Amino acid sequence: MRLNKRIAILSPVAWRTPPRHYGAWETVAGNIAEGLVARGWDVTLFATRDSVTRAHLHAVVDRGYEEDSAVDPKVAEYLHISEAFEHASEFDLIHSNYDFMALTYSRLVKTPVLTTIHGFSSPAIMPVYEKYRDGYFVSISDSDRAPHLNYLATVYNGIDLSLYPFHELAGNDLVFLGRIHPDKGVHLAIQVARLAGLPLLIAGIIQDRTYFREQVEPYLDEKIRYIGPVDVPGKNKLFARARALLHLNAIPERFGLVLAEANAAGVPVIAMDLGSCREVIEDGRTGFLVNSVEQAAQSLERLSEIDRAACRQRVERCFSIATMVEAYERVYAAIFDLEAAKQS
Amino acid sequence: MRLNKRIAILSPVAWRTPPRHYGAWETVAGNIAEGLVARGWDVTLFATRDSVTRAHLHAVVDRGYEEDSAVDPKVAEYLHISEAFEHASEFDLIHSNYDFMALTYSRLVKTPVLTTIHGFSSPAIMPVYEKYRDGYFVSISDSDRAPHLNYLATVYNGIDLSLYPFHELAGNDLVFLGRIHPDKGVHLAIQVARLAGLPLLIAGIIQDRTYFREQVEPYLDEKIRYIGPVDVPGKNKLFARARALLHLNAIPERFGLVLAEANAAGVPVIAMDLGSCREVIEDGRTGFLVNSVEQAAQSLERLSEIDRAACRQRVERCFSIATMVEAYERVYAAIFDLEAAKQS
């Protein structure tokens, strides 16, 4: 099948694909493109012009609008999305990793459109999904599903394991890695570190300045440090020093790429039992699922129960690019069958 | 021609069509629709659901996003614009009165798309016009044209003269009518009123609160009054009391609907000689074009030279709905000819 099918992968243009620091949607869209290329597909990636890919790159936006204030987000989005749809006839499938906006072009082309819903950015966008509910949808976890939408499958995000070397020995520090935003529970990670009397390294872009100033900064000292955003090598340095990753999200996680990345490096994850965390972390095997700061602190005493090699093995099995792309190949095949049935 | 052609008029959804108070783009889109219906065309107006029209109304957005905070602007725009294009095959022409966004759907449909450019909302949007420069464009004044764009014509905005009764006798007050925003020169109107020692009535929505607080509010007293936004009857009350309309815009005007409305009521207009004002106001005949506050104040002494009936006659001749719609009929005919030539 794959040799004569042409796939367009539509990535967001907030950041480069793959992103330098932050940008989960672009990360996954890039991984899908690379994984498909590796398996012999003819893939065109629609992304910013500075993106790095082995697929054909098709770009009309020079740089991510979050990275370059000269790029107008609204103009970039309309030009970028429409460009992909204007080239629809060159593809057998458009696989959108964009937010709801791309759906509004989908009925104007004959090419089938698959949307991986990387998250519902706001309840206000639900009417768009309501209108286009007859489209093809994939969820990134079983927990992050909207009722009344027909999903073809859940396909877990896959990470590039070669980027995250395995560390056999545990480090000493606790690590927080993610956006500095109340949703991500940085303040809860700080509470756990203080309860446990352990050092904590905090890394990530500051998305909510007030939150950082009021609930993070006052607690920074020799033991609890904020080191700014980190790229992949930076993440690996953190993983090498990590006793555990603290991911005490305050709202349901949609997937949680960083959980898989930490596990890939052999780092156990202590995660709030909300949303998809239960699907990514196997409680007691690759980390601990908790419901409170106290439970999180207690679980730190049980870290010796976690087999670090088992953490990596689970990521290799469940959250590798190959696993993800094989799942998408099954979804694509289902769509091609459904489309062929429509024609006949 | 008109009897067998179906026209879609795409109006913005910031406000109802026609708007209750402010909303120039919706006003003109509504006037085009009504004017075409009056002349026997089959017209569908894409606008908010609470719009009032004799055309067929097609709506997916309940209320204008500027009028109802429950309406998400981004979601409303994407749903509204795409809806019109999804129905493209039902029309012989889509006449867009929307900002640049609608252009990004235009190549996905076979129906020709005419865009009346009601203004370039930001230099950042020019790349969109650059890309779609092979489209059909109309400017609303000769002065508001972008270089490198091919325009089929300038079609001046038309107003509904029946809404603005003629007042033979001049009133005593100076009137400012427009958005409270530095671009509109409310502060300059205040300076003129103070120089001339005449009362000034200021009406319009406050778009820039800081500007209002710092450059308008401190000067309000018994003689210089701010009365809030006004609807059409409110405008007519102002025109009945008006000695002249002060329109001392600080940036080039694109068209200036209120200039035509005031003239229709017989009210002379003192306007800054920037942008389209020279096209709407005939200097010395329907008002005065000035370059400074001092000139504006001096021109107040020459108001007796203006024949109020001539003001209305000029609007009837140049800026009526009928005049506008006849001009659009010529543009439509040219498009149908060009499209027919493409087919053959």
Q: What do you see in this structure?
A:
The structure is a homodimer of 344-residue chains. The longest helix of chain A has 23 residues, at 321-343. Chain A is globular. In chain A, helix 5 (186-196) crosses helix 10 (293-299) and helix 8 (257-264) crosses helix 11. Chain A has helices spanning 24-38, 73-86, 103-106, 126-131, 186-196, 209-216, 232-240, 257-264, 277-280, 293-299, 308-318, 321-343, and strands at 6-10, 42-46, 56-58, 93-96, 113-117, 136-139, 151-154, 173-177, 200-203, 224-226, 242-247, 269-272, 287-290. In chain A, helix 4 links the parallel strand 5 (113-117) and strand 6. In chain A, the strands form 2 sheets. A 7-stranded parallel β-sheet of chain A has the order 3-2-1-4-5-6-7, sandwiched between helices. Chain A has a 6-stranded parallel β-sheet with strand order 10-9-8-11-12-13, with helices on both faces. Chain A is built from 12 helices and 13 strands. With 344 residues, chain A is an alpha/beta fold. The A-B interface holds A 60, 72, 74-75, 78-79, 81-82, 85-86, 100-101, 104-105, 107-109, 122, 124-125, 127-128, 131 and B 60, 72, 74-75, 78-79, 81-82, 85-86, 100-101, 104-105, 107-109, 122, 124-125, 127-128, 131.
